[in-house]
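Journal club prep — side note

Before the paper discussion, L.F. wants everyone to see what a predicted structure for a comparable chain looks like in token form. Sequence:
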Amino acid sequence: MLKLLSHIHRSSSHKSTFARFACVGATISLVDIGVLYLTLALGLHPLPARLISLPCSMLVGYFLNRYFTFHQFETGRALWHSLTRHFGVHLVGGLINIGVYALVLEFGQTMGGLIGASPALPILGVWIGGIIGLCFNYFFSHKMVFDR
């Protein structure tokens, strides 16, 4: 198992890079959910709370991706330039993510009953939006942010 993890960490193949990107995505979803529920506990409505949690997770994601996922690419760009590209790409992915999140919340509310009242509904929205955003963000991060 350790040999496989070591290979994935050092490999520059697209499969290994995507696996690392997905691991970072899972990690930042925990950051996203933690900040989301913290802001919900402070009394914010779910959508503005998400507008706070998503940029926090994007910032953490940038540094994890820079030093873990795409470590084999030395872009030579200044940190701020690379960070600006990252937020530009992930802004679009984030809008897709938030759109899916809002649709899941709306769909859950229209279903009513236990689904609409479930405290897990925001988590489901974050995860579904995250999977869709993950695919978008990987492709454009690889092509525009952490390219050679």
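L.F.'s comment for the group: The chain has six helices and no strands. Keep this in mind when we get to the figures.
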